[in-house]
């Protein structure tokens, strides 16, 4: 059935509002008088725990669960130490402060992931500034990780969390925010103030972990500062393949199980070219892939380009590379009438128009996405990370 509500993580970071972040419930029923409105807010227990994207419990992400899967547990990630688990419809909380004993374990989980038989969190580093990242053991679900029932191997590619901005370099939001100097005039890729980070700060590898013995099995170099950020498997349990999006290089790689050897292989299938611009912090504006989705029937691949502002739909085929079949602009930094002028563009003939919905200008750029289960509606947020929001889209924060 068509979805009737959506749960959205919302943050007050960089807004001068001293209130806890909250989980918003949005009415998505077109027949409801409150359609498109926030009908409930669930505040978090602490201040300045910046909520990031959320994921459903393991029953919904594992194909073999079948029609019996129910979306009853929601795991919001946070760009800070605590991680919360929320059981929808009750007042039950389970919080885990700094796993593996205080600040010695991975912290700052940007997102939960669904592992076979359990949920796991991803950590960006340690509380003492170490660059080590890793997978948080799935203790929150109360079940031990089980070996996958398909794909012929217990190997699951995941980005090592040291591959995101390192904790020593990762910018921290300043409160209150500085007065913006204009949309797009400050660096979204570096700590404030400009200039950008030196080479080698962002990650470059896709790591394959053996979940049975919790060991690293393979490692693929995807290019310096490519920043592998999103990993998605095909939904078909017999298809041992998936895609990983590199945020800063604008590249999408396909990973698959090699027939000759019992190993994984990687090939580049998509690369969004940068744009030559003026009025920006660099002469070339790279694509920033903030999210990657695969439709439930494995026919389409969706990519959100947070800097350029477009959402792309690619048709997937085993015989050839993904083919671009749809594109729509939702905000972004190259809109007509803004401070950025596109001097050379390999794809577009002119700069896109600003997006206006119900007489209201949409600022920011397309970030996290959620596709309806029937594949007919795509929902997108326009906020990625408060520090980079404030640096690059100050009008949105305001």
From TrEMBL:
One of its GO terms (cellular component) is cytosol. One of its GO terms (molecular function) is selenium binding. GO terms for biological process: protein transport. Its main location: nucleus. It catalyses: methanethiol + O2 + H2O = hydrogen sulfide + formaldehyde + H2O2 + H(+). It is found in: Nucleus; Cytoplasm, Cytosol; Membrane. It is a peripheral membrane protein. It holds the Pfam family SBP56. Catalyzes the oxidation of methanethiol, an organosulfur compound known to be produced in substantial amounts by gut bacteria. Selenium-binding protein which may be involved in the sensing of reactive xenobiotics in the cytoplasm. May be involved in intra-Golgi protein transport. This is Methanethiol oxidase. It comes from Pteruthius melanotis.
């Amino acid at each position: 059935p068509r979805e009737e509500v959506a749960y959205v993580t919302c943050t007050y970071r960089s807004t001068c509002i001293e209130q806890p972040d909250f989980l918003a419930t949005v009415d998505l029923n077109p027949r409801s008088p409150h359609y498109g409105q926030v009908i409930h807010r669930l505040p978090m227990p602490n201040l300045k725990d910046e909520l990031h994207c959320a994921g459903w419990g393991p029953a919904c992400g594992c194909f073999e669960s079948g029609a019996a899967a129910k979306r009853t547990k929601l795991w919001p990630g946070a760009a800070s130490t605590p991680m919360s688990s929320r059981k929808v419809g009750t007042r039950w909380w389970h919080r885990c402060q700094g796993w593996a004993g205080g600040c010695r374990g991975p912290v700052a989980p940007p997102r939960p992931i669904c592992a076979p038989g359990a949920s796991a969190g991803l950590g960006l580093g340690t509380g003492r500034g170490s660059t080590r990242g890793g997978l948080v053991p799935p203790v929150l679900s109360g079940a031990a990780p089980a070996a996958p029932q398909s794909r012929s191997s217990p190997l699951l590619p995941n980005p090592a969390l040291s591959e995101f901005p390192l904790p020593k370099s990762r910018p921290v939001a300043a409160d209150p925010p500085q007065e913006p100097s204009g949309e797009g005039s400050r660096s979204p890729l570096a700590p404030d103030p400009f200039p950008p980070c030196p080479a080698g700060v962002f990650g470059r590898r896709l790591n394959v972990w053996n979940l049975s013995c919790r060991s690293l099995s393979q490692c693929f170099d995807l290019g310096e500062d490519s920043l592998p950020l999103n990993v998605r498997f095909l939904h078909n349990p017999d298809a041992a393949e998936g895609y990983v999006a590199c945020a800063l290089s604008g590249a999408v790689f396909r990973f698959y199980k090699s027939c000759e050897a019992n190993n994984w292989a990687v090939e580049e299938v998509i690369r969004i070219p940068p744009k030559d611009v003026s009025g920006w912090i660099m002469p070339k504006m790279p694509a920033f892939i903030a999210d990657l989705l695969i439709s439930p029937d494995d026919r389409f691949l969706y990519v959100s380009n947070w800097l350029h502002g477009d959402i792309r739909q690619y048709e997937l085929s085993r015989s050839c590379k993904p083919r671009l079949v749809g594109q729509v602009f939702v905000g972004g930094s190259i809109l007509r009438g803004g401070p950025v002028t596109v001097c050379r563009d390999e794809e577009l003939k002119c700069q896109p128009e600003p997006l206006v919905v119900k007489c209201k200008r949409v600022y920011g750029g397309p970030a996290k996405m959620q596709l309806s289960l029937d594949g007919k509606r795509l929902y997108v947020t326009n906020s990625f990370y408060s520090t980079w929001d404030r640096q690059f889209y100050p009008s949105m924060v305001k």
